[in-house]
Amino acid sequence: MKKLLGIIVLGLLLSGNAYAKSYYVAYKNYFDMELSKGNTEKVYDGIYSSFKGRKSLEISKKKALDKCKKESKLKNIREDGCLLFKYEISSWIDSFNGTEFVRHPWDNEVDIFEKTLKPEEIIKGVRFSEKPKKKEPKKQKPKPDDNKVVPAGSGSGFFVSSEGHIITNHHVIDGCNTTKVSFKGNQIDAQILAVDKMNDIAILKTNIKPASIFPISNEDVSLLEDVVVAGYPLGKKVSSAIKTHKGVVTALAGAGDNYSNFQTDASINAGNSGGPIMNQKGNIVGIAVASWVQEGVQGVHFGIKSSTLKTFANSNSLKFSQPNNKELTNKDLGKLITEATVYLECHMTVANINKMRAEANNQKAFFSEFK
Q1: To bridge 176 with a disulfide, which of 124, 202, 323, 346 should be the other Cys (CB 3.0-4.6 Å)?
Q2: Using one digit for the tens of pLDDT, what is the confidence trace for 47-74?
């Protein structure tokens, strides 16, 4: 019985949906024939083996069984068998309002899914549909195109001429497709006039006419001299306001006995790069360039000496104003810092960002989304 039933089911399934009605009729007629012979146990065993493992449907077992007893002629069959017959066969068409529940008997696993049929399709009988397709993984948000130019990082700079010349670090503008200067709420493109890669200095030119400019000191710093660092550490993540740190000169050489640099305990953080280091007179004594980053090390920061800057500027025909002779009040010094220090933003391609991030000695302050 089981083998015969399996052959009937499988043969009709493989023959396609066109024979769905024949499948239903043959299946039902076969059971009626066996029942007329009193072979109720065969009918039960055949139904159970065909549908064993089927997932429960929405309708309750009790309601299905009551309906089965009321409508069926199967007087002697076990209640489970009656439920299976009426619930799994007849109810596919008569009781579920066009909703078809299908198992693929040819699979080892039980694949059951729901498919809503149109009324005209219900008349044709039960249809064994195709195996459901696997759900495709959710598409991830597309990443920016490698050639797309995006805001990548930031730095600081300062005006040294009324014609809009700005001093910053070379590493701040290195690799940038465009360097933008934030000035009075606007972003203005800057032109790169000259760079000193060895000493990490760059001269930019804009069409901005600043209200104030920094003069450059004629003397390099001395040990324990008071200094002020200004700029935009951490970009505008903390706030868009300019920030300052006070400290003293702690060494007259930089890392690796670099005497074009000096060391200070005035804080220099990512985003400070290229910003001014000045004395109380408002004269530039250095350019913020780097910090010593190591666990357990604090207060070791470096600036480029004013003499190094002047040598580079003279080589590129950039003249500075005469340094101040008198100390400024904190209020006046704060005004000078606010008017003559600028926020710089580097725009570059995504491909170049990834390339520079992979470089071991890269100093650029990339925005957090690229770290």
Answers
A1: 346
A2: 544 444 444 444 455 565 566 666 555 5
Please say whether the beta carbons of 229 and 277 come within 8 A: yes
| Residues 340, 210 contacting (CB under 8 angstroms) | yes
pTM score of the predicted model: 0.61
Q: Which DSSP state fits 267?
A: -
User: CB neighbours of 112 closer than 8 A, spacing ≥ 6?
Assistant: 54, 55, 101, 102, 103
Mapping DSSP to helix (H, G, I), strand (E, B) and coil, where does residue 44 land? helix
* Interatomic CA distance for residues 112 and 101, integer angstroms: 7
- The Cα–Cα gap between 305 and 219 comes to 9
Instruction: Point out which residues pair with 302 in neighbouring strands.
Output: 263, 290
CA distances from 114 to 111, 118, 234, 307 (A): 10, 13, 55, 81
Q: What are phi and psi of 170, to 5 degrees?
A: -65, -40
* Nearest one of 96, 76, 78 to 88, comparing CA atoms: 96
CA gap 150, 348 in Å, rounded: 6
For tokens 């920016």, the residue is: 144
167-202 in b/e burial notation, b at 16+ Cβ within 10 A? Answer: bbbbbbbbbbeebbbbeeeeeeebeeebbbeebbbb
Other CB atoms closer than 10 Å to residue 89's CB: what's the count? 18
> d(Cα 52, Cα 200) in Å, to the nearest integer?
78
Q: What is the pLDDT of residues 126-138, one digit of tens each?
A: 333 344 456 666 6
Sign of the CA dihedral with 265 first, then 271, 277, and 278 last: negative
* Cα–Cα distance measured from residue 83 to residue 65, given in angstroms and rounded to the nearest whole number: 5
User: Which domains does the chain carry?
Assistant: 2-122 (no CATH), 149-370 (2.40.10.120)
Q: Residue 176 and residue 356: Cα distance in Å, rounded? A: 11
DSSP state of 168: E
